[in-house]
Amino acid sequence: MPRSLRIPPTGAGRAGAGWARHGLQLRRGGAELLLVFGSLLFLALVAALGELAVRLFSDLNFLGNSRNLFVADAYGSSKGNAPNAKAISFGGVVYTDEHGFRVPKGGLPGDAQKSDAILVLGDSVAFGPAVEEPDTFVGRLRARFPNRRIYNSSVIGYAASDYENVVDAFLPLHPEVSDVALVFCLNDVSTTSAESIDRYLKDAKQGVPKQDLTETLRGFRLLSDANDFLRLHSKLYLLLKYQLLASQQRGWEEISRLYADGSEADLDATARKIGEIAAELKQKRVRFVVVLAPFEHQLSHPEDPASPVPQAKLAERLARMGVPYVDPRPLFGRDRAGSDYYLPYDAMHFSKRGHQVMADAIASALAH
Fold it and tell me: Coil, strand, or helix at residue 285?
């Protein structure tokens, strides 16, 4: 029988085979793309369900603040809150008056007629994020002293030098102030907490668009900007961050380093600033008291040898300068967990219950 002949493929045959292989590659590429897309869609769905669950079944608060809350150079070189603003802080709506001071919604229309006033100096702890204004210790002080106007000049990220700038700028224009209470947070010896806010203000002053990716990459800020966005919008992200990074404990460890032996320079400089404020107020015959706000770790772990160190070092310096101070730690009851006095997973910001105790401490100091 004749052998079968192997006929080479014609040009059209070779082209057809090429198209077949190309089609197979396209199908494979399409399948791979579909698999990647499906995986991303599945992960997005899981993240969305996780976000929903955290929002429904936890009492976590968002972190971060809307950029319209702050203005630069409000008091000398110190930033301040924007006047007459409605902004977001820790996921809640906050309001400010004509000075940029936090007030309840609707303001305090009757306060203008009051002839005596108390000025509260402080940072985020005294600003009271994630707590309705009437439930903050400043709001509670208004209820305690209905015949006195209470100015809450607190700004998130403030430190000792900022308090001095507020006193220098605000008091000469407001002789009705007869008492000043400085609510001192233990991290006020450092300006680290103000860095992200200062970056917002720097961008605004230079006209950098809020979502300018080029500028973000140029400043190597992609991760920090992503962190800022997620702190404002994702409770799932915050929960994972709290759990993985043990944020509460890390917050205390940072404080311990600030007050450790050998780290006295910043502490001494801060104490001198407070002494200068006290001297200026004494000259103006304005009464002054410093309230040392505790950290959550100090209430939850009083047996830790490091727990009393910050207040002890501050008290020593304040007493040496003759500055009155209050340590409210004994007022926080031991019949409940220390964390009950603070926002969830928060090292320093008070819950409604914590604000109540702080109001008692400040009211007692002002009553003497």
Answer: coil
Q: At what angle do helices 235-245 and 247-258 cross, to 10 degrees?
A: 60
Confidence (pLDDT) at 214: 40
Measure the CA dihedral 345/349/352/355, to 10°: 150
Q: How far apart are CA 5 and CA 368, in angstroms?
A: 115
SS3 for 75? strand
* Length of the chain in terms of residues written: 368
Owner of token pair 């998130």 = 156
Q: Give the global pTM.
A: 0.82
Task: Determine how β-strand 117-121 pairs with β-strand 149-152.
Answer: parallel
When the pLDDT of each residue in the chain is averaged and rounded to a whole number, the result is 85
Per the domain annotation, does 272 fall within a domain?
yes
Asked if residue 362 lies in contact with residue 140, where contact means CB atoms within 8 angstroms, the answer is: no
Buried b (16+ CB within 10 A) or exposed e, 110-141: eeeeeeebbbbbbbbbbbbbbbebebbbbbbb
**CA atoms of 56 and 87, how far apart (whole Å):** 24
Of 182-191, 213-222, 357-366, the least confident? 213-222
Q: Using alpha carbons, list the distances in angstroms from residue 360 to 91, 186, 217, 330.
A: 27, 20, 48, 12
Residue 212 has pLDDT above 50, yes or no: no
Average pLDDT over residues 313-332: 96
Residue 59's Cβ-count burial label (10 Å; 0-12, 13-18, 19+) is exposed
How many domains does the chain fold into?
1
41 domain residue, yes or no: no
Distance in angstroms (rounded) separating the CA atoms of residues 344 and 124: 16
Which CATH number fits the domain that encloses residue 159? Answer: 3.40.50.1110
How far is Cα 310 from Cα 184, in angstroms, rounded to an integer?
11
